Amino acid sequence: ISSLQLKKKKMSVACLDGPTVTEFVNDSKAFNKSVNEQFDMLDADGDGVLSRSKLRMRSGRFSSREYELQSNEEITILYDTLFEKFDADQNGTIDREEFRSLMKEIMLAKARGIGNSPILVILQGDSLLMRAVEHDQHGQK
């Protein structure tokens, strides 16, 4: 991928390690602000909850470009799993607190998977992982 292609897609190459992600998640003020922004982007109608249909309409925005490569059946299975685990009150929607819990678990799982050795990754400019990199670069501890 060329740098021009990355700019057009609002993506960047960044150096990232697990502790950077963990520190970002543990900074509740910075993490919650970023998660709230993500939630607001997904909650297009502003009703304060996310449904499967809202997430399907914006699936490429939910976490990564990988979803765009998955079949509708795979995405449905993924959402069913997410809702089963994180829809705490089982009302068929995910509210802001449930979403924060989901994002925290996903981010900490990514941190564990990345480990302590720095890696180079291509990140969407508005992704939570990019926010973790920016948080680290700005020394917001």
From TrEMBL:
<dbReference type="Pfam" id="PF13499">
    <property type="entry name" value="EF-hand_7"/>
</dbReference>
<keyword id="KW-0106">Calcium</keyword>
<dbReference type="GO" id="GO:0005509">
    <property type="term" value="F:calcium ion binding"/>
</dbReference>
<dbReference type="InterPro" id="IPR002048">
    <property type="entry name" value="EF_hand_dom"/>
</dbReference>
<dbReference type="InterPro" id="IPR018247">
    <property type="entry name" value="EF_Hand_1_Ca_BS"/>
</dbReference>
<dbReference type="InterPro" id="IPR011992">
    <property type="entry name" value="EF-hand-dom_pair"/>
</dbReference>
<feature type="domain" description="EF-hand">
    <location>
        <begin position="74"/>
        <end position="109"/>
    </location>
</feature>
<protein>
    <recommendedName>
        <fullName>EF-hand domain-containing protein</fullName>
    </recommendedName>
</protein>
